[in-house]
């Protein structure tokens, strides 16, 4: 913008006058501004209506501005961690703005003191304004693309909204540092990590589609729901309970579903239907005939949305059940380390090997993510497990805490639908004599993310606690834990048998 250009020029003059021509140390001493940044920090792409937030740290008592004279407010010290000289400003971007231009550029912030001295500094990262008249589109890449709720990050990664198939078209309306902000529907947004996105050339329309008529059918293993779309749209899913049902929102889709054909061979699906909760969200409601969900997978065949619904195993017993076990860490990823240098990766493999023997003794078929001390990324594990299509997964880990007093066993699950498996394992693990540390839900761990099969993670005990460490490193105690975990899996399977089928909502009229 015009005024901005003026300020940039003034900024350069100020730099030459008080900074660039002087030795560095003196220049530092003379600067009025110590730091400028956008909040959140990092490269930003914004759309009209978004808030552009900036912060300047410098000499107190001045007048700070950005965007051609818009004022920043100097924070009271109690709002700035006791500091003076912290200025903040917010600007809501307008459709006619040209901030940053189409290519993006750093944003200049200015600080003028009452004595007339002026300093200007650009943000380290650039700001770019996206035009709603030229929708920016991206497609998902790879098989592990996922949406995040927000910009959060920790050792587990940001909280995930769900996985997406490849080549799903997304409308990019922003970017902050390492993630694209995508618009799913009116008022609904999510974030996509850059590594799972490929930007498309300009000229495309914001993604949308009418839905065709559904076909439901079963093969020898799964039930399927097929919904024709004209392009691959993003979706979100969850299992709701009482009654047990799978609910899938397809964003950008509007119903032209005029019938739902339910062919022979369906076993898991009940009386399915759809809703259109808002103009651009199409909702599949898939009641399940069994109270316990055995998982599902959503993906595309060309532009056909395909929901693959797993059935409970034919015989609800360990004999013949295909169980996946994951020994946490391995290779260069040693995990937690205990006194005497014992490492989590070795303990988890030893315990998983015992659990494998125990389950095989009871007639189960066991598949392992790793059988030796090898490095295996989370992505490799998830990919491998999806291919193996187990009936369920148990991932085994060893806990550790800075506080040596923390001890006990715990079990983790991501989705409430899979809580019974984690709860059964947790209950049985306490029978080894280990105290219960807790049952943890909504756990954002990569191996708890897949919805394809019930899964749980067991943190057997704390290697950082001397009593727990004795249990963890003793082969006889490892075997006891393995037996109890096998009991827990057996309890889960039995409980599903006891829970059985649900009431009328799930049944197919033809089969009653
Ligand atoms: Zn671990």
From TrEMBL:
It catalyses: Hydrolyzes the link between N-acetylmuramoyl residues and L-amino acid residues in certain cell-wall glycopeptides. Residues 382-490 form the MurNAc-LAA domain. It comes from the Bacteria. Keywords: Hydrolase, Signal. It is an enzyme of class 3 (hydrolase). Its EC number is 3.5.1.28. Residues 1-29 form the signal peptide. InterPro entries: MurNAc-LAA_cat, N-acetylmuramoyl_amidase_3. CDD domains: MurNAc-LAA. This is N-acetylmuramoyl-L-alanine amidase.
């Amino acid at each position: 913008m015009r005024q901005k250009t003026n300020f940039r020029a003034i900024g350069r003059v100020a730099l030459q006058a008080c900074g660039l021509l002087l030795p560095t140390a003196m220049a530092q001493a003379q600067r009025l501004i110590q730091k400028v940044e956008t909040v959140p920090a990092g490269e930003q792409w914004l759309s009209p209506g978004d808030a552009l937030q900036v912060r300047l740290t410098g000499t107190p008592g001045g007048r700070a501005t950005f965007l051609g004279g818009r004022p920043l407010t100097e924070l009271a010290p109690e709002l700035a961690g006791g500091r003076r000289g912290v200025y903040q400003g917010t600007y809501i971007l307008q459709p006619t703005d040209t901030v940053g231009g189409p290519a993006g550029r750093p944003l200049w912030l200015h600080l003028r003191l009452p004595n007339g001295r002026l300093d200007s500094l650009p943000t380290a990262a650039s700001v770019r304004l996206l035009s709603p008249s030229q929708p920016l589109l991206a497609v998902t890449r790879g098989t592990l693309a996922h949406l995040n709720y927000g910009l959060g990050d920790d050792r587990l990664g940001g909280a995930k909204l769900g996985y997406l198939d490849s080549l799903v078209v997304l409308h990019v309306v922003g970017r902050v540092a390492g993630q694209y902000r995508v618009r799913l529907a009116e008022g609904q947004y999510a974030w996509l990590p850059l590594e799972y996105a490929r930007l498309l050339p300009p000229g495309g329309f914001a993604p949308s589609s009418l839905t065709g008529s559904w076909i439901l059918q079963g093969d020898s293993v799964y039930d399927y729901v097929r919904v024709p779309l004209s392009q691959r749209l993003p979706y979100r899913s969850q299992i709701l309970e009482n009654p047990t049902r799978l609910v899938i929102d397809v964003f950008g889709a509007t119903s032209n579903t005029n019938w739902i054909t339910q062919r022979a061979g369906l076993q898991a699906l009940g009386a399915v239907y759809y809703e259109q909760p808002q103009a651009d969200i199409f909702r599949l409601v898939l009641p399940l005939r069994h109270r316990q969900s055995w998982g599902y997978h959503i993906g595309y065949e060309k532009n056909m949305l395909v929901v693959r619904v797993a059935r409970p195993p034919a015989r609800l017993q360990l004999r013949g059940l295909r169980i996946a076990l994951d020994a946490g860490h391995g290779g260069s990823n040693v995990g937690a380390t205990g006194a005497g240098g014992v490492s989590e990766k070795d303990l988890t493999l030893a315990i998983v090997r015992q659990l494998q023997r125990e389950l095989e003794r009871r007639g189960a078929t066991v598949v392992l993510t790793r059988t030796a001390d090898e490095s295996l990324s989370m992505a490799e594990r998830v990919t491998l497990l999806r291919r193996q299509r187990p009936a369920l997964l148990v991932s085994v880990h060893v806990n550790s805490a800075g506080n040596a007093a923390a001890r006990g066993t715990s079990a983790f699950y991501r989705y409430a639908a899979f809580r019974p498996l984690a709860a059964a394992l947790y209950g049985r693990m306490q029978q080894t004599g280990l105290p219960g540390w807790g049952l943890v839900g909504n756990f954002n761990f990569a191996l708890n993310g897949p919805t394809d099969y019930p899964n749980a993670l067991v943190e057997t005990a704390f290697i950082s606690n001397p009593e727990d460490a004795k249990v963890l490193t003793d082969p006889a105690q490892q075997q006891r834990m393995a037996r109890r975990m096998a009991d827990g899996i057996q309890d889960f399977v039995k409980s599903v048998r006891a829970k059985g089928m649900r009431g009328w909502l799930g049944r197919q009229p033809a089969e009653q």
